[in-house]
Specification:
It is a single chain. With 1147 residues, the chain is an alpha+beta fold. It is built from 26 helices and 42 strands. The strands form 11 sheets. Strands 20-21-19-1-29-28 form a 6-stranded mixed β-sheet, with helices on one face. α10 runs antiparallel to α11 and α21 runs antiparallel to α22. The chain is extended. The N terminus is likely disordered. InterPro entries: DNA/RNA_pol_sf (IPR043502), Endo/exonu/phosph_ase_sf (IPR036691), RdDP_mobile_element (IPR052560), RT_dom (IPR000477). This is Reverse transcriptase domain-containing protein. It comes from Adineta ricciae (Rotifer). Pfam families: RVT_1.
Length: 1147
């Protein structure tokens, strides 16, 4: 590399499947996709289709715009008479579940459930239909599948409102925002808008239409009134074109209306009595003949619901039956084989069928369609998905007929009274009984025959299942044999691994004690030799013969020690050691091994920007005491950082070769109000006239002043090409006068900037403030007596006299060797690193000490002294409340804790105290397993169409709030032996500690509650203390990982969604009450501000209720769209997209 060097010194201061609507409407038709309509819990999904004709045609004479006459699909009206289940937008069409259609008991309707239908792959016997086929014969061959029924019941949108603008550039966001605000501020109505889109199809220049789609019936009926619209949008006038057709949600049917009555008088009477009735339409059949049904189109949902609940309407003193309006159903067509009645995922056909020509193909990329339309259903000249097909029409009619039967079951006919009144006794009607009668074939016998046939089929299937089960059992037996062999191999490998680990430990101890003899002998010998040579570098008069000899010898010595990083890094080390730079800028570094630089420049922070070739690259090194942050810059050979002082100072390092791909103007975004730009510009401002003019024009534009050194910087030419540009900073610059191995002379510079070091001046005051805070935090809580943990009767268990097993020397040495040898010291100035230099024979003394401690429950008082260091949770400069105390406990006590922990865990396992839903700090329990079980709980509840609430509980300073006496008392009542309790009590009580910041120590203060944060015993003691929490929270499915608690609650299964939400709200409130009770009795405070909730449901929408702690409602539990649980992002719909993006961004 060409090791250009810049250095600075600071003056330091401080979808779904294809439907039958292949003729999807163009922009002028205003067709829409699936939309969520109702704001209430009884929301429904509808689909707008441009299908014309059908069982209930739309003959609205008031529609001015034919393109807006939209025939809506089968729809349900209100919660009182709804038989459809709302569709969740998160569930695909191919994952339906069996649905039970329910009628309200208030209106006396029967409960009708969907029958179990056959699930065929294709419609049996593809039909060849011509113009003379009879529809009734054709319908008998059709098989209406369960998928088709549910598909038709779950797709019904609203038609849009069309706003016509002749001028202006009003955006859809303006329309949506202003319309919602107008409804809320002027009419006190919350409009639920689903979407807006714009179109200019078929319009003049500069004219455009904006289509407004609403979400629910109330919003649609509100916008039907012209007076509810604002006068303009974005100060632009508009024309509200003819209103869309009234959807089925606002329509009703009057049955059995005489064909000969005065229809005009009938219509006027209804409109006078019900002003919200917009249109009264006589229905027609497919032959365009009037029928005895009248369609009512209303503009108010409440009036419609009222009429539908009353089930009858009185017109001219005649009572008519009134029912909901049902429009023709959508037909489900497989997008793979073009067959009717199933989804693509259920299709068993291997190849795909072209919807145009009807041919089979393997890959659509290689399929060459003939463009000759041919239907696979009827062999006519139209597409296979077209509604013109007679098979599709017949299937649609049959599907609609079936849906009508589901919604309107035949009422029982009571003919008993009429039969009794007209009865006349005739003896001839009662002949004597026959002696013998042949068996009669009744419908019940037919059903029994069908059942016997079904049982025969079932028997065959069971035989097949038995064969498969035998194969599976054989496979399991083989697997168990192989698992046993693998287990033996793993055991052998594990034993070998343990032996190898012991060998490695002994070898490492040996290597640590005996340094390399070559390094000890050879390097010092050369150092003495170089010192002797340097002492002889004088003539007889004492003058130095070679001024650079000393630096050369030092460089040779460094090269001998490490010669991995090229030829010039030693020069950088020498310059840094002699001049003590705050910032170094290295240019033309080439590809770097940053780990080497981080090791040798440990007191610097490194920022590297790669170049455009193997020789390019810029490396910035900034001293650790400076507060510095990197500025994002993607330009090659340009590295930018901000140094925080009284003001931010931006430092830019640049290497600009002749072949650079960027221009000077590309650097403009990184220039700030206070900045300095150092670099190799490859431009001499005096000699390179044309290049310098371009560079100076750019610097003048940004008010950058050039600062040049006093001599040339290029050793290959007599030019000054390494210099600086400065803005609003005082600077001095010069070249290095010593020798260099580079072809560029290092440039030295001094900036006059006041910086702020990452420490406060008065460390003693900080220590005392923190000590006062944590002394108050660790004070003993005021507990109301009597308390069940300490004052309830003690149960005597059979293991009450069990003693703590003694420690063997091998176990003690193994524990010491496995302990991480950190250099952080405890309160007595001892670190684990010192164990490397303690002879193993000395541990025999500690063996007796540990066994005596376990036997007598005595601990040296010095072992209970704690040195605390504070880690900032967010900002480095903060109050003590925003820090986390880390306890550096006695090094020898750490060994004793680990020995005690293995014995304490054996007691917990034997007693079976820890619940299976607690996965933290336990052998054999993994975090990922807990996360999967948590997600499985939510998936299972959502599959039952239940709304699910997950509450993530956060305890305030969980380990630091452990109640000492309550913990001892609770463990005694859980059956922990007395010997273990006595040692834990001796370990917890009479502790003290001090806080250290920047080498300064606070006063000693008492620790009366909580467990040490750095102890291995604290987490296990914590989860044992709270092992019965799930019993208090029995109304939910709880998941524990140490102090992280997730509680999953769901509404009652088998009722309406609205009732499920109400039931869920009650359960949550009860759960929160139990949670607060447990936190109070366990003296474990809750962090209410960080306790959050996640709502998951197949239905669309957020929960309409709020949850809080207590009855006052001050401490609300916030609903979140996503939550980071155990390091994984969990969204309300349980999607993995956000997590995958985060992982990809980090990789």
């Amino acid at each position: 590399m060409t090791s250009n060097l810049k250095s600075i010194n600071f003056n330091r201061g401080e979808v779904c499947e294809q439907t039958s609507s292949d003729h999807a409407s163009a922009v002028g038709d205003y067709g829409t996709a699936s939309i969520n309509l109702n704001k209430s819990a009884d929301s429904q999904i509808v689909n707008v289709s441009t299908i014309n004709g059908g069982l209930f045609p739309n003959n609205d004479p008031n529609l001015d715009n034919p393109s807006l006459a939209i025939d809506t699909s089968l729809v349900n009206s209100s919660s009182s008479s709804s038989v459809r289940r709302p569709l969740s937008m998160d569930v695909t069409d191919e994952e339906f579940q069996t649905v039970t259609y329910k009628k309200s008991s208030k209106v006396g309707r029967q409960q009708v459930s969907s029958p179990d239908l056959v699930f065929p792959h294709h419609i049996q016997n593809v039909l060849n239909v011509n113009e003379t086929n009879d529809n009734s014969v054709l319908s008998k061959q059709l098989n209406i599948t369960n998928e088709s029924t549910r598909y038709a019941l779950t797709r019904y949108p609203f038609a849009p409102f069309v706003l016509h603008f002749k001028t202006g550039t009003v955006t859809i966001h303006q329309v949506k925002e202003e319309l919602v605000n107008h409804g809320k501020n002027v009419h006190q109505t919350d409009l639920q808008l689903l979407n807006c889109r714009s179109t200019n199809a078929g319009l003049r220049m500069n004219e455009y239409n904006i289509l407004v789609y609403v979400k629910d019936v109330s919003s649609f009926s509100f916008l039907l009134d012209h007076q509810n619209w604002p006068n303009s949008f974005g100060n632009e006038p508009y024309i509200l074109q003819s209103l869309p057709s009234i959807p089925p949600q606002l329509c009703l049917l009057i049955k059995n209306v005489d064909l000969n009555l005065d229809f005009e008088d009938f219509s006027d009477t209804i409109k006078v009595k019900y002003p919200k009735v917009l249109n009264v339409i006589r229905m027609k059949n497919k032959f365009q003949n009037n029928i005895k049904m009248i369609k009512l189109e209303l503009t108010c949902q409440s009036i419609r619901d009222k009429l539908l609940n009353e089930r009858r309407i009185l017109v001219n003193h005649i009572s008519y039956e009134i029912v909901e309006y049902l429009s023709p159903a959508n037909v489900l067509i497989c997008s793979k084989c073009m067959a009717l009645g199933h989804f693509k995922k259920q299709c068993t056909q291997i190849k795909e069928t072209c919807r145009t020509c009807g041919e089979l193909y393997d890959d659509i990329k290689h399929h060459k369609c003939s463009k000759i339309e041919k239907c696979i259903h009827c062999n006519q000249n139209h597409k296979s998905s077209s509604l013109k097909c007679q098979v599709v029409k017949t299937y649609r009619a049959e599907l609609t007929r079936k849906l009508l039967n589901l919604n309107n079951p035949p009422a029982p006919v009571n003919t008993l009274s009429s039969a009794i009144q007209n009865y006349v006794y005739k003896p001839s009607n009662f002949p004597p009984p026959l002696l013998s009668q042949p068996p009669q074939i009744t419908p019940m016998m037919n059903k029994l025959d069908d059942l016997i046939n079904s049982l025969s089929e079932m028997k065959k299937q069971l035989v097949n299942v038995e064969v498969k089960q035998n194969k599976v059992e054989q496979f399991i037996l083989d697997k168990e044999k192989n698992d046993e062999i693998i287990k033996q191999k793993i055991t052998k490998l594990s034993n070998d691994h343990e032996d190898l680990k012991k060998d490695v430990i002994h070898r490492n101890l040996f290597i640590d004690r005996h340094e390399n003899l070559f390094v000890k002998l050879t390097i010092p010998m050369f150092e003495d030799l170089f010192t002797l040579i340097a002492s002889q570098n004088h003539d007889k008069k004492g003058n130095v013969l070679d001024a650079d000899l000393k630096s050369k010898l030092e460089r040779y010595l460094i090269q001998m020690k490490n010669d991995k990083q090229g030829l010039r890094w030693q020069e950088v080390l020498l310059l840094d050691s002699s001049l003590n730079f705050d910032v170094l800028i290295l240019l033309e570094t080439g590809l770097l091994d940053l780990s080497f630089y981080e090791k040798n420049f440990y007191n610097y922070r490194l920022f590297f920007q790669k170049g455009e070739n193997s020789n390019g690259g810029v490396l910035l090194l900034v001293k650790n005491f400076l507060q510095v942050s990197r500025v994002e810059c993607s330009i090659p050979n340009v590295c930018v950082v901000d140094v925080k002082g009284i003001d931010y100072v931006r430092i830019v390092g640049i290497y600009a070769p002749e072949s650079k791909s960027w221009k000077w103007d590309d650097l403009s975004p990184v220039i700030s109000n206070k900045c300095v730009v150092f670099g190799d510009f490859n431009v001499d401002l005096y000699k390179d006239t044309q290049k310098s003019e371009l560079l100076l024009a750019w610097t003048d534009e940004h008010f950058l002043a050039p600062f040049l050194p006093n001599s040339r910087t290029s050793l290959r030419s007599d030019r000054i090409i390494d210099f600086a540009f400065v803005k609003d900073i005082d600077i001095s610059i010069q070249t290095y006068q010593g020798n260099t191995t580079s072809d560029h002379v290092p440039v030295l510079s001094v900036l006059s900037v006041k910086t702020i070091k990452n420490q406060l001046a008065n460390a003693d005051m900080m220590c005392n403030i923190a000590a006062n805070y944590y002394e108050d935090s660790f004070k003993k809580s005021e507990i109301i007596k009597p308390h069940p943990y300490t004052d309830s009767p003690v149960v005597e268990y059979d293991n009450v006299d069990e003693v703590i097993p003694e420690v063997t020397l091998e176990e003690l040495i193994y524990t010491v060797q496995m302990k991480r040898k950190k250099k952080s010291v405890d309160a007595n100035g001892i670190s684990n690193f010192m164990f490397n230099f303690l002879d193993l024979n000395h541990w025999k003394l500690f063996l007796n000490l540990f066994n005596h401690s376990f036997k007598t429950a005595l601990l040296p008082s010095a072992w209970k002294d704690t040195r605390m260091i504070l880690l900032a949770k967010k900002e480095s400069i903060c109050s003590p409340s925003l820090t986390r105390p880390i306890s550096l406990i006695d090094s020898f006590l750490k060994i004793g804790e680990r020995l005690f922990l293995t014995r304490f865990r054996d007691i917990l396992v034997n007693r079976g105290l820890l619940p299976d839903n607690q996965s933290g700090f336990r052998d054999g329990f993994r975090l990922q397993t807990r996360l999967l079980l948590f997600l499985e709980d939510i998936y299972s509840l959502m599959s039952n169409s239940s709304p699910v609430c997950t509450i993530f509980i956060d305890f305030r300073s969980a380990f630091d709030q452990l109640w000492h006496h309550g913990c001892i008392g609770k463990l005694r009542r859980l059956g922990i032996p007395i010997s273990f309790l006595n040692w834990i009590e001796a370990w917890l009580l009479n502790r003290r500690g001090f806080i250290e910041i920047g080498g300064r120590k606070s006063r000693w203060f008492s620790i009366q509650k909580g467990g040490p944060q750095g102890s291995v015993l604290t987490p296990t003691l914590f989860i044992t203390y709270h092992c019965d929490m799930s019993q208090f929270l029995s109304s939910c499915s709880s998941h524990f990982f140490a102090d992280d608690v997730a509680a999953v609650l769901a509404g009652q299964i088998g009722i309406r969604y609205t009732d499920q939400c109400i039931d869920l709200e009650k359960r949550i409130k009860s759960f929160v009450d139990y949670l607060e009770y447990y936190a109070s009795i366990a003296d474990q405070p809750l962090n209410r501000s960080k306790t959050e909730a996640l709502f998951s449901a197949r239905a669309i929408g957020k929960p309409k209720f709020f949850i809080s702690f207590g009855d006052a409602g001050n401490d609300m539990i916030c609903w979140k769209e996503e939550y980071k649980y155990l390091g994984y992002i969990v969204s309300s719909k349980l999607g993995w997209g956000k997590l995958i993006k985060n992982v990809e961004s980090k990789s």
